[in-house]
Design goal:
Low-confidence stretches: none
Distance between the termini: 82 Å
Helix content: over 70%
Number of strands: 0
Number of helices: 14
Number of domains: 2
Mean pLDDT: 86
Order of helices and strands: HHHHHHHHHHHHHH
């Protein structure tokens, strides 16, 4: 009830003040378990930092390993921070030993939801950026002109899709349904969400800004990419906690509760869990016994007749 009343009180505030309140609320969540978040962030900084070491070595194997390592942080790291913020908001401590296995379990759903949003975002802006770039080049405009033209439409569409991860993981919604929920949340609130998005980055700029300027001087793209993703995961807790607060206030709770009551097909990846692997030999033996008995019943009368 207290949460709902605070939402009604904030609804009358201007969008810029409301966005600042959400960022402040996200910071308060992070302050409740700083040590747990620092431990989790530190763990997921290891893969991109390992990519820095591997990427500085010659050879094709080093190239592929250094290219793959940051994806551990990009995927599992993002899921783990979402789960950690959920735990903190529920009054529970951040325990990496519990969050890491849960992040692995949610990985297929995360990849499916983010695969859809990636197609919806870059499937639109990649060809559009190509067209705009060709046009601005023909006019002799500066190189950053396409980005300057498309930055607001890209931000508008990004904040419409950014909540799909929360709907997929926090509310256990299917991939397509989570994207629909995300688009609906930002409806009429996209300016507030965009401002909160920007403000959560700005408040961390005094720390991550100088670090990123140093990364820009690195000529090796694998090393630069590793350092970049280490910086990004460092920024994730406040950013995700801010979006968590917005999602909790604007999520369609009634529609989500109704969707949970409807039966769903079991995703194929649920059968890839170890407990299902252990059951495979037993099922094979059972099927073999049933089929052997079937053919024995069919063939026995014929053999006896002969």
């Amino acid at each position: 009830m207290e949460k709902a009343s605070s939402l009604l009180a904030e609804a009358s505030r201007p969008w810029w003040k409301q966005s600042a309140l959400y960022v402040a609320s996200g910071v308060r969540i992070c302050r409740q378990d700083i040590s747990g978040l620092v431990t989790l962030v530190g763990l997921f900084m290891l893969p991109p930092l390992a990519a820095v070491i591997v990427g500085s070595q010659p050879g094709a194997l080093a190239f592929w390993v250094a290219s793959a390592l940051p994806w551990i942080t990009i995927t599992l790291g993002n899921i783990a921070i979402v789960l950690a913020v959920e735990a903190i908001d529920a009054g529970q401590p951040v325990v990496p030993a519990q969050i890491l296995p849960a992040a692995v379990r949610w990985l297929p759903r995360y990849l499916w939801a983010n695969g859809i949003t990636t197609v919806l975002f870059w499937g639109l802006f990649t060809p559009l950026q190509s067209v705009v770039t060709q046009q601005t080049n023909s006019w002799g405009w500066i190189g950053i002109a396409p980005l300057a033209i498309l930055i607001l439409p890209m931000l508008f569409w990004h904040v419409r899709l950014v909540f799909a991860t929360y709907a997929a993981i926090v509310d256990d919604q299917p991939g397509v349904r989570s994207v629909v929920i995300s688009i609906g949340i930002a409806h009429r609130h996209w300016l507030m969400v965009a401002a909160a998005f920007a403000l959560s980055v700005i408040i961390e700029a005094p720390i991550v800004g100088p670090l990123y300027l140093l990364v820009l001087k690195i000529t090796n793209p694998l090393v630069a990419g590793g350092f970049t993703w280490a910086i990004v995961i460092l920024m994730r807790p406040i950013f995700i906690a801010t979006l968590h607060e917005i999602y909790q206030d604007f999520r369609p709770a009634a529609a989500i509760a109704a969707s949970r009551k409807r039966p769903r097909p079991v995703p194929f990846w649920r059968f890839l869990r170890p407990r299902h692997w252990r059951a495979v030999p037993r099922l094979v033996r059972k099927q073999w016994t049933l089929r052997s008995g079937f053919w024995e019943r069919i063939l026995s009368p014929r053999l006896e007749a002969r």
